[in-house]
Each structure stands twice: as C-alpha cells, then as structure tokens.
C-alpha cells in the first residue's frame, strides 16, 4: 500500500452534551481518494462527529486539520466553502426548483446573473458522469430518493467538495440504485475526494471501502484496512462483546388463519394479491423497493383502501376504509417512516401510548379517563422498559430508542390481531436489531399474526415462518422456511427465472 | 400575565370604580360577541388551521336572519334558526373544500372572507334592516343572568365547556395531535378530516351566533356588520400563547389574553384614545408576545455558548 | 388532451402552464362577456380595466415577492394608506414637486415600513403572519395619529396629480395605453426578469421551497427575506402613489382591505401560498383576471354590483382547487415517469397552516 499522506485529520476531539459524553478523545484521518467506512451502534457518536465536521457543533476539545491547517467552520455553509459536506438519509433538495438549480444553488463564483443555458448543460454533464439520465430542467420534486441523492452528489462535485460524508445513503435504495450509487462513489474516489461512508449494512462496506473505522460509546476503537477485517470482527468491536447468535425463530405453535386476503387489487400499485396469515405466525414480505409491499400494507390498514379484492379477518369479511376501521378490527401498522409518522412529539408519553386507542379511555361524556390511561401506560412502559422520568414527559425529551419503544407500546396497547411492521430495523444498529427481533418473536408467541416487510434479506430469512415475495405489484411466490434460501428469494424478487 | 397585571393596575388608577360589577360588565361591552368566536378559533388554530372568514360569516348569518325576518311570513325565531343554519353551512362548505381537496385553510377561508362578505352585501344590498321585535333587542342589550347580558353568559358558558373539552376531553386530545402532526394522527387511527370538518362547521355556527347577537345589540343589520373583526379575534388567540403552527396553547392563556385586551381597550378608551390607536397598541403587544421570548431564548443560548467555550481547556 | 399536446405540456414548466391557463381564461371571459354585453369590447372598457387594475396589480407583485419565500404581508394595505397620505401631505406643502419626486417619496416611505416587517421576520424570527397582522394595525395607528383625523384634500394638491391617472402614452382607436398601466407593467416585467435571472431571485424561491435546506446551504436567508419585505414595502408605496392619483382626497383609512385583495390576486395567479413557486407575471394576470371579472359582472344588468365580492370568493376557491389539482397531477405524472408505475405515492401532505405562515422557528 503506497504511503499517501492524509489530508484531513481529526485529533483528540471530545464533545459533551449535558450529562452525555458524546465523543471522547476521538481521532480519525482521511486520505485523498479513499472510501472510509464508519460503523458503530446508534449512540456511538457518529452523528455528533458528522455535525462537528460540518461545523454544526464546535468540539469541546481537540482540533481538526485540513491540508495541515486548522479547520474549524462556524456553520455548514462555511464548511462547504472549505470543501467539507454531508449527505444525509433524507436528502434536502428544493422541490420547486429545477434539478440544475438544485445543483448550482449557493454558488458564489458564478456571478450575479443566471445563465440558464450553461447551467443546464453543465448540470447535464455532471449528471451524465454520475450515470443519471435525469433532465436537469425538471423540477426536483419529481425525483426519487436515489435521484435526490444523485443531485446532492452532483452538487458536491460542482462545489469541489473534498470530504464528502454519506450518512446511511443506501437505506432507502433498491439494489439497482445501490449499484449506481457505488459507481458514483467510485467516480468521486477517482477525482481524489475522500468519502466517509456511514452505514449499518456491514456487507456494503466490503464492496466499496478501503479502510473501516469502528466507534463505540463515543470512542474511536479501531481503523483497519478492509482486508484486515470481517463482519464478525467488526460486530465484536461495535458491540464490545461476542455477537449473539443471529436470531432465528425457533419452535412455536401456530393457530388458525386470522387474516385471509384474496385478489387484492389497486390500479397502478398492485394486483391479484392473495395470502393468509395465522395466529402466532410471522409472514415475511420480501422484494425490491417499489415492489408494492407498503402499498398492500397501506391498503390493509385503510390509508389507501384497495380498489377491489376481499379481506377476511377471523372468518368475517371486513371493510377497511380508514385506519379507524383497521384498528377497530384489530389491524395495526408500524410505518417505515418512523420519525414523521410515529409519535406526537409535543405530547406526553401516556398520551402517545393511548393515541391509537382513545376510544377505550373515552367516557360517555367525551372525557378522557386519565386514571385508566395512566394504569395502562405504566404497565406497557414497564413491560417494554421505557426509560422516562414520568408518564407526563413529552416524548420529544426521550432518547431515540425509548421513543421507538413508546411507538411500539402504542400499537401493543391496541391489542391487534394482525400487526404489520414496515422495515422495523431500518437504521437500527446490530445490537438493537437483535432486540427488535426478540420482540417480534415474543409478540408472535403471544398470539398476534405478524407481517414483517423488510428489504434485509438475512433478517427476513431468519425471522419469518413463511416468506412472500413481491415484484412489480404482484405476489410471485410464497416460500416456507424450509424452501427459502437467499438465492431463491432474491431471484424471485428480481425476476430471474 | 405580567402585562395583564400591569393593565389592571393602570386601569384601577384611572378609575376608582374599577372593581365594581358594573365596570366589569362594561369591560366587555364592546366585544361581547367577538370573544365568543375567540373560543372556537382557539380550537381551530391549535389544530393547525385558521379561519379568516369568521367576521364575514357573522355578517352573512345576520344578513340571512334579517332578510328571512323581513319577509314577514316567519316568526323571528325561525329567522334566527335560518341565520344559524347559514353560518353552519358556511363553515361546512369551507371545511369540506379544505378536507376534500387538502387545501390550505388560509387560502380557502380567505376566499370565504371575501365571498361571504359579498354574499351578505348581495342579500342586503345597501340597506339596513332593523325593526326587530322588542325581545330581540332586549336579548342583545339587556341583562339576563344577574348583571350579565346574554352574550356574556354564552361566552362564559362556552369558555368553560371549551376549557373542559380541550384539556380533558378526547376531542381536545385529538385536536392537539392533529395540530402537532396530522400524519401521526391519521396513522394512529384519528379521523383527521372528520375532526377538522367538525371544527369548521362549529366555527361557522358560532360565528353565526355571534353575528346574530351582535345584530341584536345594534338593533339593526347592515352588510358590513362585523367587518374586520377577524383580525382582533385571531390576535386574541395568538396573544394567549397559542402557536400559529398548531399543537400547543391553552384555553387559560387565551382567557387571560381576552381579559388583557379588553382591559387595554377599556383603559385606553377611558383615556380617550381612539379605537384605531387601541388596535395599534394591541398590534405591538401581539408582536412583542412572540418577539420577546425569541430574543430571550437567543440571548440565553449566546451566553450559554460563551460559558461553554470559557470552560473548554485552553 | 391528445398525447401530442400532453407531450408539449410536459416540456413546459408548471409555471408556464399556469400562466397560459390564466391568459386563456382572461381571453375566454372577455369573449364570453363580449358576446352578450353591449359596448363591451370597446376602448372605454379597456381603459377602465387597465387603470383600475394598477393598484392591485402592483400589490399582487409585492405580495408575490414575499410569498415566494414562504412569508406573507398583511400590512400592504396599511402601507398604501400611509404612503398615500404622507406623499399627498408632502405635495400640499411642496407644490413644486413633480411626479418622479412624489413616486420616490412614496416608495421610500413604503420601504421604511417594509424594513420594519423585514427586521421582525428575518431577525426577530417572528412568523410573518403575526408580524404583519401587528404592523397592519400599527401603521394604521401611526397615520391616524399623524393625520389627527384630517384628510388631505384634492384641491390642495398640485394640478398634475388629478390628471395623472389619465395620462396616456399611446392611443389606438380609442384604446388608450395609460401611463399608470405602463408603469405597472414595467414593474412586473422588471421583477419577473430579476427573479428569473438574478441569483438572489432564485435564492428567494429556494428559501420558500425548503427553508431548512436553504439555511444549511448558507443562502443568507435573513438578508434575502429582509430585502423581500423592503421591496414589497416599496412596491406598496408605489401603489400608494397610484392610490393618491386616483383618489385625490386621502383619509387616514386609505387602503383598508387591499391586503386581502393582493393575496387573492397572487393566489389566483398561481402563486403557491407555501412559497417556492409561481411567477410575477402570474400574479399580474391574477390581478387582471379578478379586475376584469369584477368590472364585467357589473356591466351585466342582471347581476347586481353586490355580487362582486361573492363572485371573487368563488373565483379564488376555484383557482386554488385548480392549482392544487394541477400541481398534484403534474407531480404524479413526473413521479410515475421517473419511478415507474409501481412507485409508492406515499406523500405526507403537510398542508397545515404551519407550512404557510413562514418564518417559523426552524429547529434551534
């Protein structure tokens, strides 16, 4: 390996927030043209590091060097001017402006006037090098998440960014889009950009990274070349203990069919979907992003009722025209977009827990029975081990993990007969993933029929009793646990015969 | 709250009769009907919406009532019901458009503000309709319960009901959640559209009631009845600490704000200050109520940051 | 719609489509009204419309300027009143002043008032709807105090003031191109160009399109928002000048209610209340459409003049519904093209008030 000097260095950086020491004496360096992976559990300090690198926070101690000079930006804009930028899971673009404008907005050097022709052609050029055939004159609102990310990368290229931080870039991408993203990253590499690549999907690291650093509890644990590590060693360093056996569902009893769906159909979204789920069973839904799985879930939950087809719950035909209907019948849905669709942040823990079941606590006069509410909320909080000063605390004050548990508590309080979980472990680190899998297993054992939508193939295989595969709006296959292998499921999802 | 205390002190200084019951009633005199609408507007704004049309609906309902009565073939009671119905329908129409097409309430109720004022003018043209039976005028001008006129009784009763509903009721809970994050509400099984629709219908109905009471007090109805009241109403709600973005605020805060505004108007009125200027003062108060906490927060942050960097090792 | 027309529409940006639709509706209604109203398609009517639309057209432009960055200015009506009054007052004391001086004074007054709004919204971080609700009252109060209840009388103004409204630049067969109209058009054209070609103009749209992203990209939002309010104030001042030349006698209540009309005109003109989209030209067309319809309805003998506002309300509703459905269909078509027919349409529709009022506390 040739000795190229690092051009970006972080030395002994520490950061504290009230009672939490987010980072302790952390050091890291970046070599031009390398893809440097960064892994660690949630709370390991990765996002704090990003914010310090991009100038949103200032470190309490330590320093950063860019080209051997002190680097301490006041804000994200200044960091960008110096060549450091970050792309997050939810890219921030200007939906009403054209793609080209999105790429070039904020450029100081291009003068006062906008030259539309050159802007469009320059944008087109950059997009082409990124393997994107997007029309730069199109409003950015029409882009997919992958497209938006591409625009952000294009922006970075146009700004001559030298350190690009990518935070969970593949979370919402389909396999094909991930490939294209990697191609774009490689192009960045070729032009000497250092990419700090943060992900929970360990397998990706081995495809794209040159070196991998591990953080744990706010400390830098190790930095090694990609050839010197494997998944197990990484997990061990991330978690600080031997990784538990990858969770796999063991023996259990399954009851009668709880939910039977027949020929569910919505024009443009999915067609001819039929399946059934039993009590105590976990039915996995595999497939590529965009295959229609969430659409089916939304139909079952009444957000976007299907055009036709039947839904039978415990032997009775039911209409699910709205989420209230769904909940009344005992169908609950945990959305994949947890941040926006899970909790009412201003309100208390107990109010959130009872949110989906208000009817139960409403007296005849329309008042809320606070006593009953408190009892149930406390019970669930204990059961799920939610750490909160008291039930009246606004959920905004809770940690991410506890917020997640509060959300789960909300749905459990609804005592559903069918629980649909959409990407339950997206964005969750390895340690917590196992916890979630345990919960799912427990829930199933308590008699709930569970549908798990997941793009994480190993997870789907380990968790599910049967696996349904969707592709392009249709249910292509249902495998039993015995029949399912990663290859078979993948082939079915992708369409290779 | 501090402001309220100050205004009360000033008022007392200005008039030794301040604590008399009569003066208390007098306090409300000019705004009897407006404040009834403030109560429902609180709900609307907490839910994340706004209703700019309330004053126009007041005028519209009064106009409908006056016209129905004028035809002579219906007893006044029926006319009043017609007016109330008109208000409810106005609210229903707007609420339906807002929920069905997912349109911003600011724009839809702006259209309503212009449209219903226009409708009131269409009905009444340039005339003024008076000539109501004595009991109608009495309702507006005389007292009902002890020293309180009808409108005030309704206000206090409404305030109490609203307080209970908002703080303790399931409906109030839903309003808060919707204002906080309508999508979370929807995904948790709250019937968002239904709640919003109910809010707008109620808003229209209450506005109608207020309009009719106002007409009763004035003794006549013109097409321009209650013109520009909406700004006052919204100001009182916002002054009460209800966030314009929805999801927070209390009925108690709004009640305080109402009382404060009335005190200010009363005090300034006693000092012979013109109505327009009074409104200007309220405007200053409105801006200050949001500006000062903002500034305080930022000063706090700046000093915290300074403290933090001071503590960092050299 | 045939697929060829559809394809051509796809090439056009949504803004162009909206403008074309507006133009079409205006032309269409002129044709319709012309067919059954006597003397409709005459020079006299044209002149009436072009002179009466000037004030609201300029205000619509002012409002659009502010709305693009996701704010609103409810104080424009009061600003019109203040600037009209002060300018008129100045002229009675200084009869030597010519129109240009008067316009400059009017705009300066407006700019000062606008800067107060700008300061509070951009630096005080107070939501625009609250600030301008307050300044609406405050400005009115100030002029009330200043005027002491006295009106500025038309008779005391220099002679040119009263004739200014009728000054004609060009006249063809009775169709006059009035100076005031030309000024309004010039204003719109300049602003349209500025917002399209100047970088700061594009940034204004960006701020309205995604305030958080704008902040992170270092787009100097506070300064830009300040500029937009000062600009809106100056335009409202100009509208005050126009008000003065039309009204002659100015009272302290001049301009009341104009703010709502300006918002209505902008909205009808396709300016999204959420910011980020719409054009000056669209707002201008919106003002023209409203005025044309109002004045046309008046000429239809069966319709009483009191229908004016009611019709306007309905018009706004229809315009907004149309705009929203167009926007949604456009995005859906784009999305379908780009993502393929299976794409999930899961959009969280943030149509609540919070995304409209602007200047809100972005996470601190």
Write the layout of secondary structure elements.
The complex is a heterotrimer of chains A (497), B (314) and C (364).
Chain A lengths: L7 E10 L2 E11 L4 E5 L6 H8 L7 E6 L2 E2 L5 H7 L1 E4 L11 H6 L11 H14 L15 H14 L4 E5 L7 H16 L3 E5 L3 H7 L2 E6 L2 E7 L5 H9 L17 E10 L3 E9 L3 E6 L5 H9 L6 E6 L2 E3 L4 H7 L1 E4 L3 H4 L7 H5 L4 H4 L8 H15 L15 H14 L4 E5 L7 H16 L3 E5 L3 H7 L2 E6 L2 E7 L5 H9 L3
Parallel strand pairs in A: 3-8, 3-9, 6-7, 7-8, 13-18, 13-19, 16-17, 17-18
Antiparallel strand pairs in A: 1-2, 1-4, 4-5, 9-10, 11-12, 11-14, 14-15, 19-20
Helix pairs in contact in A: 5-6, 14-15
Chain B lengths: L1 H13 L6 H9 L2 H15 L7 H17 L5 H26 L3 H20 L3 E2 L4 H8 L1 E3 L2 E2 H19 L1 H11 L1 H6 L4 H27 L2 E2 L6 H11 L11 H20 L4 H37 L3
Helix pairs in contact in B: 1-13, 3-8, 3-9, 3-11, 3-12, 3-13, 4-5, 4-6, 4-11, 5-6, 5-11, 7-11, 8-9, 12-13, 12-14, 13-14
Chain C lengths: L2 H9 L2 H23 L6 H25 L8 H18 L5 H25 L4 H20 L11 H6 L3 E5 L2 E4 H19 L1 H11 L1 H6 L4 H27 L10 H11 L11 H20 L7 H33 L14 H4 L7
Antiparallel strand pairs in C: 1-2
Helix pairs in contact in C: 2-13, 3-8, 3-11, 3-12, 3-13, 4-5, 4-6, 4-11, 4-12, 5-6, 5-11, 8-9, 9-11, 12-13, 12-14, 13-14
Task: Provide a brief overview of the structure.
In chain A, 34% of the residues lie in helices and 25% in strands. Chain A is an alpha/beta fold and 497 residues long.
Account of the 3D structure:
Chain A is of the alpha/beta class and 497 residues long. Helix content of chain A is 34%, strand content 25%. In chain A, helix 16 links the parallel strand 17 and strand 18. In chain A, helix 14 crosses helix 15. With 314 residues, chain B is mostly helical. Chain B has 14 helices and four strands. In chain B, the strands form two sheets. In chain B, strands 1-4 form a two-stranded antiparallel ribbon. Chain B has a two-stranded antiparallel ribbon with strand order 2-3. Chain B is globular. Chain C is mainly α and 364 residues long. Chain C has one domain: Orthogonal Bundle (ABC transporter involved in vitamin B12 uptake, BtuC). Chain C is globular, with a radius of gyration of 21 Å. Chains A and B meet through helix 10 and helix 13 of A and helix 8, helix 9 and helix 10 of B.
């Amino acid at each position: 390996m040739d000795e190229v000097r690092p051009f970006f260095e972080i030395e002994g950086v520490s950061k504290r927030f009230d009672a939490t020491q987010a980072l302790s004496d952390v050091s890291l360096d970046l070599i031009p043209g390398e893809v440097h992976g960064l892994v660690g559990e949630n709370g390991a300090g990765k996002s704090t590091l990003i914010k310090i690198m991009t100038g949103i926070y200032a470190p309490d101690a330590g320093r950063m060097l860019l080209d051997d000079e002190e680097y301490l930006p006041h804000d994200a804009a200044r960091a960008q001017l110096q060549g450091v930028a970050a792309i997050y899971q939810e890219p921030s673009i200007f939906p009403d402006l054209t793609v080209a404008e999105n790429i070039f907005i904020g450029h100081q050097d291009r003068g006062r006037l906008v030259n539309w022709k050159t802007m469009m052609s320059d944008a087109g050029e950059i997009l082409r090098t990124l393997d994107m055939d997007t029309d730069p004159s199109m409003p950015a609102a029409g882009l997919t998440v992958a497209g938006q990310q591409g625009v952000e990368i294009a922006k970075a290229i146009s700004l001559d960014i030298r350190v690009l931080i990518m935070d969970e870039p593949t979370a919402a991408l389909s396999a094909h889009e991930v490939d294209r993203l990697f191609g774009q990253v490689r192009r960045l590499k070729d032009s000497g950009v250092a990419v700090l690549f943060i992900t929970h999907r360990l397998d990706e690291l081995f495809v794209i990274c040159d070196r991998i650093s591990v953080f744990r509890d706010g400390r830098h644990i190790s930095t090694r070349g990609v050839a010197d590590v494997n998944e197990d060693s990484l997990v061990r360093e991330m978690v600080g203990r031997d990784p538990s056996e990858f969770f796999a569902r063991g023996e259990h009893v399954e009851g009668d069919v709880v939910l039977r769906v027949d020929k569910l159909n919505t024009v443009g979204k999915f067609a001819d979907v039929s399946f059934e789920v039993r009590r105590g069973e976990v039915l996995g839904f595999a497939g590529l992003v965009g295959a229609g799985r969430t659409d089916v879930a939304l139909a079952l939950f009444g957000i976007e009722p299907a055009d036709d087809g039947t839904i039978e719950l415990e032997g009775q035909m039911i209409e699910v025209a709205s989420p209230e209907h769904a909940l009344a019948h005992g169908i609950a849905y945990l959305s994949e977009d947890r941040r926006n669709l899970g909790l009412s942040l201003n309100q208390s823990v107990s109010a959130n827990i009872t949110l989906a079941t208000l009817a139960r606590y409403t007296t005849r006069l329309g008042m809320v029975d606070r006593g009953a509410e408190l009892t149930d909320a406390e019970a669930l909080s204990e059961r799920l081990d939610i750490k909160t000063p008291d039930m009246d605390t606004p959920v905004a004050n809770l940690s991410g993990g506890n917020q997640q548990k509060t959300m789960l508590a909300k749905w459990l309080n609804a005592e559903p007969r069918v629980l649909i979980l959409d990407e339950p472990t997206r964005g969750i680190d390895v340690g917590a993933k196992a916890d979630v899998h345990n919960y799912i297993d427990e829930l199933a054992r308590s008699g709930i029929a569970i549908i798990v939508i997941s793009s994480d193939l190993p997870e789907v295989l380990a968790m599910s009793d049967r696996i349904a595969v969707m592709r392009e709006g249709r249910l292509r296959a249902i495998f039993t646990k015995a029949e399912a292998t990663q290859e078979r499921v993948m082939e079915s999802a992708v369409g290779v015969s | 709250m501090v402001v309220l205390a100050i205004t009360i002190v000033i008022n007392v200084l200005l008039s030794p009769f301040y604590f008399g019951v009569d003066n208390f009633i007098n306090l409300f005199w000019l705004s009897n009907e407006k404040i009834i609408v403030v109560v429902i507007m609180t709900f609307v704004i907490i839910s994340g919406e706004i209703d700019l049309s309330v004053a126009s609906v007041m005028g519209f309902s009064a106009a409908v009532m006056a016209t129905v009565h004028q035809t002579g073939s219906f007893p006044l009671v029926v006319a009043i019901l017609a007016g109330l119905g008109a208000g409810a329908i106005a609210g229903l129409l707007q609420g339906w458009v807002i929920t069905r097409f997912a349109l911003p309430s600011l724009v839809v109720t702006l259209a309503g503000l212009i449209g219903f004022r226009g409708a009131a003018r269409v009905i009444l043209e340039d005339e003024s309709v008076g000539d109501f039976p004595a009991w109608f005028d009495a309702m507006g001008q005389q007292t009902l319960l002890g020293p309180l006129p009808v409108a005030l009784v309704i206000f206090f009763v409404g305030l109490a009901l609203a307080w209970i509903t908002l703080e303790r009721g399931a409906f109030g809970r839903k309003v808060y959640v919707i204002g906080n994050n309508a999508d979370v509400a929807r995904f948790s099984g709250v019937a968002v559209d239904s709640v919003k629709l109910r809010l707008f219908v109620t808003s229209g109905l209450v506005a109608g009631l207020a309009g009719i009471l106002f007409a009763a007090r004035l003794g006549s109805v013109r097409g321009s009845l209650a013109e520009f009241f909406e700004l006052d109403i919204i100001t009182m709600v916002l002054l009460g600490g209800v966030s314009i973005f929805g999801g927070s605020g209390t009925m108690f805060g709004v009640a305080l704000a109402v009382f404060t505004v009335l005190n200010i108007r009363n005090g300034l009125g006693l000092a012979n200050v013109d109505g327009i200027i009074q409104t200007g003062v309220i405007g200053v108060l409105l801006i200050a109520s949001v500006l000062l906490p903002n500034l305080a927060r930022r000063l706090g942050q700046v000093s915290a940051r300074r403290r933090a960097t001071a503590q960092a090792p050299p | 719609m045939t697929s060829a027309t559809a394809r051509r529409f796809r090439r056009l940006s949504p803004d162009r489509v909206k403008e074309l639709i507006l133009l079409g509706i205006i032309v269409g209604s002129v044709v319709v009204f012309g067919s059954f109203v006597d003397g409709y398609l005459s020079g006299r009517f044209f002149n009436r419309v072009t002179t009466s639309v000037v004030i609201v057209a300029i205000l619509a432009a002012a409002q659009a300027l502010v709305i693009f960055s996701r704010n609103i200015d409810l104080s424009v009506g009061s600003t019109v009143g203040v600037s009209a009054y002060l300018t008129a007052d100045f002229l009675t004391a200084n009869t030597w002043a010519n129109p240009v001086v008067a316009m400059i004074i009017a705009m300066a007054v407006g700019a000062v008032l606008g800067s107060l709004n700008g300061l509070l919204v951009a630096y005080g971080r107070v939501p625009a709807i609250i600030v301008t609700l307050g300044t609406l009252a405050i400005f009115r109060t100030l002029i009330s105090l200043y005027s002491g209840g006295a009106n500025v009388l038309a008779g005391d103004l220099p002679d040119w003031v009263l004739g200014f409204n009728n000054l004609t630049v060009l006249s063809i067969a009775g169709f006059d191109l009035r100076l005031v109209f030309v000024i309004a058009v010039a204003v719109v054209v300049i602003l349209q160009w500025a917002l399209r070609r100047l970088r700061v103009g594009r940034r204004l749209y960006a701020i309205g399109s995604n305030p958080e992203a704008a902040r992170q990209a270092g787009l100097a939002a506070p300064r830009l928002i300040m500029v937009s309010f000062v600009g809106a104030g100056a335009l409202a001042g100009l509208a005050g000048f126009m008000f003065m030349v039309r009204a002659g006698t100015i009272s302290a209540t001049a301009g009341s209610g104009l703010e709502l009309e300006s918002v209505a005109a902008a909205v009808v003109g396709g300016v999204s209340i959420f910011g980020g989209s719409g054009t000056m030209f669209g707002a201008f067309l919106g003002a023209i459409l409203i005025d044309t319809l109002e004045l046309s309805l008046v000429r239809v003998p069966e319709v009483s003049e009191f229908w004016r506002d009611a019709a306007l309300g309905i018009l706004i509703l229809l315009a907004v519904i149309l705009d929203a459905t167009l926007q949604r269909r456009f995005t859906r078509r784009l999305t379908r093209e780009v993502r393929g027919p299976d794409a999930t349409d899961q959009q969280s529709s943030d149509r609540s008030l919070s995304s409209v009022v602007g200047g809100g506390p972005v996470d601190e």
